[in-house]
Amino acid sequence: MGRASASARNVLRFPGQNLQESRRFTAVIKVLCLVRDCLKNNVVVTNRDIYYRDVVLFESQRKANSIVDSVCRMLNVDRVSLNVVAAAKGLVHGNLKLCTASGDVVHISTLDGPVLIPSAHDLEFARICDEDTKFVLIVEKEAVFNELCNNVANAVLITGKGYPDIATRRLVSCLSRSHPQIPFLAAVDSDPHGIRILGVYRFGSNRTPNHNHNLICPELRHIGVSLFDYEQGWVEYNEQDYRTAFSLLKTDWIQLPEMLDCRREIHRGLFLGKKAEMNVISNSSSLSTYINHKTNHL
């Protein structure tokens, strides 16, 4: 049993050559059995459910997620096709109409406040109901998102609370296909992690290479935060920031002409050893004023 990747073929052996190989093989078989039962009984499970089915075998949630990803690559399907979903994580604020795979229609209103994004397994179609909507704004951090919900009008706001899960990426992708005329914007920290998060929304993730076409927003534009937008609140780069920045500069997508602004932010950060976080702007001035200034010429 094996799987192909872009750079090499990893083979699962039985019996394994060592304890680690044997454990991984057993974990893959465990996931395959769980998935078979889910598909047979039309039951949907979360990544967390899988981990808790055998905590001793999987050892950690991260390792359980890795095994599920391996099974997806082996079978050339996404998690949704295996009835495996992430627990609800992302939030959306706006007037939307969502259609589920079962045919149900869900209406979301700004009067409801921020709403958890339904799982990718349930989401089949998404549309904005407010004709006055000027843009869709993807926000990196939940605290910033919550502040903007009360102060930015005529917009749909979405946050994945950091690196987005598949459900959040699918909602953004569905909305961008339904509304190609509406600008899709991203407000992230001026640091390597913020830029990488933007890249996941726009170009996809290495963890879902075969299904990124259903999970991306190719027209997503970076509007901030820029390192030079607020110089008095700079934060020092740490060792992880440097490693992530150099790694990011080696990716193909960051070298594209349309990613010049993001590439410039990384170069500035490396040169100065500084980064700018949206929380700093929020603590010093009106974050909604900052966003409105960035979007008032759309």
Give a description of the structure.
This is DNA topoisomerase (ATP-hydrolyzing). With 298 residues, this protein is α/β, with parallel strands linked by helices. It has two domains: 19-85, Arc Repressor Mutant, subunit A; 91-296, Dna Topoisomerase Vi A Subunit, Chain: A, domain 2 (3-Layer(aba) Sandwich). It has eleven helices and 15 strands. It has helices spanning 19-41, 47-53, 55-58, 61-75, 142-149, 166-178, 192-203, 239-248, 260-272, 278-284, 287-295, and strands at residues 2-4, 9-11, 45-46, 84-85, 91-93, 96-100, 105-108, 115-116, 123-128, 135-139, 155-159, 184-187, 221-224, 235-236, 274-275. A six-stranded mixed sheet has the order 8-5-11-10-12-13, with helices on both faces. Helix 7 links the parallel strand 12 and strand 13. The longest helix has 23 residues, at 19-41. The radius of gyration is 21 Å and the shape is globular.
| CATH classification, class level of the largest domain | Alpha Beta
> Architecture of the largest domain, CATH level 2?
3-Layer(aba) Sandwich
Order of helices and strands: EEHEHHHEEEEEEEHEHEHEEHHEHH
Which strand order do you get reading across the main beta sheet?
Answer: 8-5-11-10-12-13
* Total number of strands: 15
Kindly identify the CATH topology of the largest domain: Dna Topoisomerase Vi A Subunit, Chain: A, domain 2
Indicate the proportion of strand residues.
15-25%
Helix content: 40-55%
The major beta sheet can be summarized as: 6 strands, mixed
Number of helices: 11
